[in-house]
Amino acid sequence: MATTKKRNVRQDSPKENHAKQPKTDLSSKVDVIIQSRKHANDVFDILEFLQSDKEKDLISAANSCSKLFCTLLERCALFVGQLPKEEEMLSGTHTADEKYSMFMRHRYNSCVELLLEHISHDSYQIKETALCTLMKFAEVEGKFPLQDLDWSEHYSFPRDLIKAAVERLLSQTEDMALLISRFQEFLEMEDVRYYVMSSVRENVGKVMEKNKGAVMPVYQNNVFILLSNIILPSQESEFTNFMVKQEAKHKDWKAAKLKEHKRAFERMWLGFLKYKLPGSMYKKVLVILHDSILPHMSQPTLMIDFLTAAYDVGGAISLLALNGLFVLIHQHNLDYPDFYKKLYNLLDPSVFHVKYRARFFHLTNLFLSSSHLPVYLVAAFAKRLARLALTAPPTALLMLLPFICNLIRRHPACRVLIHRPSAVDVACDDPYLMMEEDPAQCHALDSSLWEIQTLQKHYHPDVAKAAMAINKPLGDKEDDISELLELSTYELIERDLKQKTNKGVPLEFEPATELLQGCGGVLSRHFSLD
Question: Which helix (H) or strand (E) element contains residue 96?
Fold first, then answer.
């Protein structure tokens, strides 16, 4: 044991050692170390293999370390408490047992450090092996803790080890999506999930403050992937899967309480979303917001700052942000008077030409579904959509015209827009202000839907037919527009081609039915077919 000071796991190159001697049977070496303390120094050989350049050797060494140190932990053979430095250990007046436990504890710490480094290895197999070995250590450490227990806060859970693993998973330079996906298995354990949430919040605050809140696409994407893999149970009775059981004090443990999980979950997401995100990430967050985030928050209305910032991004992100605000308004009594004003200002010609058109109008239809909306507001939306219809493509018009008719059906007071006597066959100035951002000030109720009457002369017969609907009394039953939301130009052309034309239409020529015909055929007029 006296030679341990001279031998250090990081001093000798694994390549040089492997060149001097054949590969050692690591499994046998582990058994020897476990059986006799006289062979304690052989642990250095195992740790050297843990620094090998060969994937096979490294994985074998990790498995050997797992067997060795888990056994020592279960035997309580590792030093517990504040570990003295190795120099102090050798010079101090410690017993042989104490020196052995300190020595092995230092080797265990070296093993953990190497495994943490291997989480960033180029080989996924090595990454996965390192992560799983560390989580195995965490499990055994939880049962046989190496630190003096803090019963008021963390009990016997290996929080520092989990925190270190999370920091490696949240790399600032490397996409860790695949490994985080593998880590999801451990997030199903209630206590692991609780301490991971706390560790993520601390890590995000430290990293983002260090970078002064600047956008960090790789890092923030890793954080988002980890956060989106965290799913809370809906009831405390579902808390049955724990890595560490706290015996009599288990019920008092924060990690065993749903209320504490929700608080940690809320702090974690709010801590992540308070910083500026990469443009593409706003959409990822907003898509899962109403299903995976808001239901698990103690105060969902705290998300209003994030949703307001997301709206300012523009495009599809603005619409998804409004969807989140809509959920807060209807389910959590949020007072947000500018909601419909913001939605109104999203209506411009571009909405008919983007890939999220179907989702846009699906959500807009949802937002305008209430029969308690003021008449002026519904009239403003109907009029703005009618004006935009003048330049919309046929695929959009076939959805838009029934959409406008449905708005009028829901709000009979808006029928004045299609039955205004002063607008019939009389040329007049339209009082509607298209450029006005406030729907309350655009004078839509003073106008009429002359645009739809104009579309009755549209070049596409289906559009003209749809526009004719306002010439007849509108019934109470709304048109189903769900199938029209995603209608594409290709589908419209295919549908037109499949329609059979009237065979009785007179033609100025004799249509050919075959390429080679007899008398009267195209070829027979110019060539002899004898």
Answer: helix 96-118
